[in-house]
Amino acid sequence: MKMKIVLVAAMALVGLTATAQRQEKVVDRVDQRTVQEFDHQDVTKKFKSHMFIDIQGGAQYTLGEAKFGDLISPNVQLGLGYQFTPWFAARLQANGWQSKGGWNTMQVTNYSAGQRLELNSTKYKWNYVAPGIDFIFSLTDLFGGWNPDRFFSAAIFVGGGVNIAWKNDDAINIDRVVKNNENLYKLEYLWDGTKVNPFGRGGLQLGFRLSPAVKLLVEGNANILTDKYNSKKAGNADWYFNALAGLRINLGKAVETETKDVYRDVVVYDTIYKYVTIPEPVQKIEQVRRDVFFEINKYEILASEAGKIKEIAEFLKENPNAKVQVTGYADVQTGNPQINDRLSRQRADVVVKALIEQYEIAADRISYDAKGDRVQPFAENDKNRVTIMIAE
After folding, report:
1. Which of 85, 134, 382, 392 qualifies as a cystine partner to 287, CB 3.0-4.6 A?
2. The pTM is what?
3. CA–CA separation, 76 vs 55, rounded Å?
């Protein structure tokens, strides 16, 4: 009796083993779903209104009748401004140091043997400071758009203020010499003490970016005043011109930076498996393998590689019992494990999608996997940017 029980148990075990051996895990279907994955970061720069200071020095030419070189004097300018928009700013400025005036006269010198004509230059100088306001318009940003990294910029400005002049001693001393001589030039608008004149101005600024906060500023401006500025009566306005160079320094940030993560929709294929009973043994099909290679950081199928997918599809159609294993890989020398996991999955996805949609291969004949950079099927690094199809 015990022997019968042992035999029955042994036969049952053999039957179960045989049954187990006839079960196989296969692909039931490949479900498609869409997920969002991080793609890149967008960095946006925005203009921020800010204050600035100008520190400049250079030379002045005061319009007159003397030699050009005799009317050149030193000049400095300090400014405090506010940049309201990329193309418009206002500046409080104080310009000053020295202005010059003068004239040339012809004199006949009598030497014993004859006469000689000589050119004499009479010149004088005085001090001044001219506080005022300028309105600045950036031509570059107005017509070319705002660009915080632009190296060169150009702007025009207009403004005005008051010119406060003093120390006119040179002109007073000259007048003492010439006032009693009817043949000599007269200073009909001679002034003493402090002279205050309104002025208007306009000019051009050229900027050269040295850093995000500092710009080299080259400026030329023309200033117009009443006829009484240089003590001479001319019947028209007096002018002086300044050529300056210096620095514009931003006070505070002129640019705000915003960083935004950008995501994109990615199609993911989920493989659903089932267990089926293996049918009666059939003739074994030889294994066919095709390697679909990709460009670095890409998962689009190259035209040169598309034929390999077609060959596998034709093999599957010619052998209805054949199945294919699709496995995606990424090379270990590029990216990082997280990126390479995604990239290898995308490389497998695109091959699976081509087999299903383009060649109408049933999903239950496709096995799907992705190895990232954890497995490197080739010794040569660049070849591991691949999806391997093995059909059998």
Report:
1. 392
2. 0.56
3. 8
The residues near 83 (Cβ < 8 Å, ≥ 6 apart) are 49, 50, 51, 52, 89, 250, 254
Q: What is the pLDDT of residues 323-359, one digit of tens each?
A: 999 999 999 999 899 999 999 999 999 999 999 999 9
Per residue in 169-214, pLDDT (tens digit) is 999 988 887 776 665 677 889 999 999 999 999 999 999 999 999 9
Phi/psi region, residue 22 (left: phi>0; alpha: psi -120 to 50; beta: rest), is: alpha
89: Cβ contacts below 8 Å, ≥ 6 apart? 52, 81, 82, 83, 135, 136, 138
Closest Cα to residue 325, out of 270, 293, 368?
368
Which two structure tokens, joined as six digits, stand for 263?
Answer: 């995501």
Residue 23 CA: distances (Å) to CA of 17, 26, 157:
10, 10, 88
Closest CA to 342 of 263, 243, 273: 263
The partner residues of 47 in beta bridges, in order of sequence, read: 255
Residue 122: count other Cβ atoms within 10 Å of its Cβ: 19
Both tokens of 84, joined, read 């309201």
Helix (H, G, I), strand (E, B), or coil: what is residue 289?
strand
Phi/psi class of residue 316: alpha, beta or left (left: φ > 0; alpha: ψ in -120 to 50)? Answer: alpha
Dihedral angle computed from the Cα positions of residues 11, 13, 19 and 24, in that order, rounded to the nearest 10 degrees: -160
Contacts of residue 245, defined as CB under 8 A and 6 or more positions apart, other chains included, come to 56, 57, 58, 216, 217, 218, 219
Query: Could you tell me if 159 and 135 are in contact, meaning their C-beta atoms sit under 8 angstroms apart?
Result: yes
A 10 A CB-CB count for 282 gives 8
d(CA 53, CA 83): 11
- Min mean pLDDT across 65-74, 93-102, 106-115, 367-376 is at 106-115
Q: Are strands 324-328 and 366-370 parallel, antiparallel or unpaired?
A: parallel
DSSP H/E element including 31: strand 23-47
Q: Tens digits of per-residue pLDDT, 35-92?
A: 888 888 888 899 999 999 999 999 999 998 888 999 999 999 999 999 999 999 999 9
- Residue 4: pLDDT over 70: no
